[in-house]
Amino acid sequence: MKTVSILLLNQLNIGGLENARQGFLESNNYLRMMGKSPAFNVELVGSDKEVKVDEGLYAIRAQKNIRELSKTDIIVIPPIKGDKIQEAIEQNLAFLPWIVDQYHKGAEVVSLCLGAFILGASGLVDNKNCVTHWRAADQFRKHFPKTHLLTDKILTDEERIYTGGGAFSSANLVLYLIEKMVDRETAVYCSKHFQIDMSRVSQSPFIIFKGQRNHEDKLIKQAQDFIEQNYQGEFTVDQLATQLFVNRRTLERRFKKATGNTLSEYMQRVRVEVAKRNFEQAPFPVKEVMYKVGYSDAKSFRKLFKKHVGLSPIEYKKRYAS
After folding, report:
1. Domains of the chain: which residue ranges?
2. Can you tell me the mean pLDDT for 92-103?
């Protein structure tokens, strides 16, 4: 039986914690129904006796303290609150050396959603792949530039470290772990019990592109404003550079540094986001939307849309149209 230590973090998102706890416990229930031994011993582990969550609405008690737990098999880092990320990192520093020590002793480490920020602070995902909620992608890159953040993936598995995307998407990572550590049959049962689609592999359909404006380069913000206001028209990078009184190479270099995208990629993402909103808000034909966002070639539009969204325009329209 594997010991699963779910960390009782300060600034905890209780929903993500329960996703993991209930998932592992339900796998045990299924194994008992099949006449088998349970696979997981699930414990809440803290650096204090209890933590208060949701502005003191709940208090959760730790079953064990990290100082008295010398060995565990799986560490689960649940999500922290998205509006207090830096504060949450600082309040959970006591966990970091323990996580690193347990990993070097052979433990597997799992982060769910914004728990990736605690994992990132441990240094264990330096030069490794990682995912977190798409809304926190820019913030994560700023905090942990050495980590390879994959914004479109729903989970990663690398060298005994597992990371999961958005809050409810973390349930897919729990199912993945159950399948890997127990068997496919148990994971399928749990997916049916919790009504989770096991086939999901990407966050892309859920990403809302709002422009990467978390920077201080005023020139690039002007460039972004121009692109977002003129996405339907045809203009070259040279024309944009001339309008902003800067040479092309300087504009391209500064744009990439500030936003993480090339000018061409940024234009594509703006147009795709407008197309998504059109599909969601009214039953426009795909070709009409394609023309509205500045494209004239249906094949190119489909390819580009699927690249950024993970679904074809028709699939997206069927799923999200009102």
Report:
1. 2-203, 218-320
2. 96
